[in-house]
Amino acid sequence: MKETDIQTEDKIFEAATRVFTEKGFDGARMHEIAGEAGINKALLHYYFRTKEKLFDAVFSKLAASLFEKFTPLFRPGMSLEEKIRFFYHEHISFLKQNPQLPSFILNELNRNPQRIKKIFEKADVDKIYNMLSQQHPKELAEINITRESMPQIMASIAAMSAFPFVAKGIIGEILQKQGKDFDSFIEERKEFAPEFILAALKNFGKSKKSKK
Amino acid sequence: MKETDIQTEDKIFEAATRVFTEKGFDGARMHEIAGEAGINKALLHYYFRTKEKLFDAVFSKLAASLFEKFTPLFRPGMSLEEKIRFFYHEHISFLKQNPQLPSFILNELNRNPQRIKKIFEKADVDKIYNMLSQQHPKELAEINITRESMPQIMASIAAMSAFPFVAKGIIGEILQKQGKDFDSFIEERKEFAPEFILAALKNFGKSKKSKK
DNA sequence: GTCTATAGAAGGATAGAC
DNA sequence: GTCTATCCTTCTATAGAC
């Protein structure tokens, strides 16, 4: 019966993923998850014991899948500019398939700061800066990216792709009045975001240098 | 007794504001709001009848206060560049005092799309574009802002100030490892955001034009 | 207007049969 | 492993005294 075990556990996990991402921890109901999975409430507890544990399993996996998408930025063999274009293309395509993901993750992370530490021994800006400056020493110097300015720049890069999804409600509504829709806005964004960031970085580097 | 009525109603409203912004609608508990207000659960219902109605009152006011901050962008007498600098300074200062506001508003807006329409008869990008192009015809042309590119640009401008607060959990954690803190990151951002956006707009306009 | 007490519903979790 | 039935707690909301 190992087969069915795994099948059921997976069904539960997928149902929980849907319900939790849509409603959040507080808004999700165990009986709704059971319904989505086509099984019974008691079985949820049989497999995952508590709501909290079920949530943790779902959250950890989703958080990992989200942040994993940043790794291409550190793969060698591409110029910085290529990496940025490639990153946005991949990242936004992924988010388009999972539009509630950024909201969900960022929110639960704000509510439960403890969760952060579990996942983020990795998220060390200094390491990221070291890797980038090894791979792109000239480019970073040219556009004036320093260890100091890294957090501001990284936050801005992430903002360009994640924010539209976090603000999907309003943006969708606004677009609708223009006779446009969210999906084509997002499609455009795959091009717009990297162009915008590259333009900013080029000019930003220049203005900083000329001041000195 | 009108005096005390208003005092109590205000106390409830303020307590509800704190609890709802911190925990969201689903996470908030009426008895916690009552406790925060220093009164009794029954009194909440006496003044606001239901949790839903109390939430609506709080939400409407907060959403209005948040989006109100965008109006300086349409006040005449400033160059576009000055407006952008001024906007970020004011907006980020405001958010620094109310760091959970963007998360709260955007989230509840995603969960309850009906709410949007109540508040946003105003949010019409075309109107905004018309106002801006009347006040800054040359400047807009120079940096190549068109009716078409408005949504992308507006989303990017909003992202630069709102996103750091939405992602406060992670960003704070990452900064901590560098021996920095979120507040000084935000303080820096008042300068960084406008410089970054202005740099992007300048260069973005150029690259688009030179392609044609 | 404000309180105590409580109704009534819903949620998470478990016991026990199959 | 899966189900039904049920316990226990918590939550929103109301009744009724003061």
Describe the secondary-structure layout.
2 copies of one chain form a homodimer.
Chain A: H1 2-27, H2 30-37, H3 41-48, H4 51-68, H5 80-97, H6 101-111, H7 113-119, H8 125-135, H9 137-142, H10 150-166, H11 168-177, H12 182-211
Helix pairs in contact in A: 1-2, 1-4, 1-6, 5-12, 6-7, 10-12
Chain A binds a DNA duplex (18 and 18 nucleotides) through helix 1 and helix 3.
Q: Would you kindly provide a written description of the structure presented here, covering whatever features stand out?
A:
The structure is a homodimer. The first copy, chain A, has about 210 residues and is mainly α. Chain A has two domains: about 1-60, Homeodomain-like (Arc Repressor Mutant, subunit A), CATH 1.10.10; about 70-205. In chain A, about 80% of the residues lie in helices and about 0% in strands. Chain A has helices at about 1-25, 30-35, 40-50, 50-70, 80-95, 100-110, 115-120, 125-135, 135-140, 150-165, 170-175, 180-210. Chain A is globular, with a radius of gyration of 21 Å. The termini of chain A are far apart. In chain A, about 35% of the residues are buried. The structure holds a DNA duplex (18 and 18 nucleotides).
Helix coverage percent of chain A: over 70%
Low-pLDDT parts of chain A are: none
Tally of distinct domains of chain A:
2
Oligomer category = homodimer
DSSP helical segment count of chain A: 12
Largest interface comes to: A-B, 58 and 59 residues
Principal-axis shape of chain A equals: globular
The pLDDT mean of chain A sits at: 91
The N- to C-terminal Cα distance of chain A equals 71 Å
Order of helices and strands of chain A: HHHHHHHHHHHH
| Largest sheet composition of chain A | none
| Rg of chain A, nearest Å | 21 Å
Q: Count the strands of chain A?
A: 0
Per DSSP, what share of the residues of chain A sits in E-state strands of 2 or more residues?
under 5%
Estimated structural class of chain A: mainly alpha
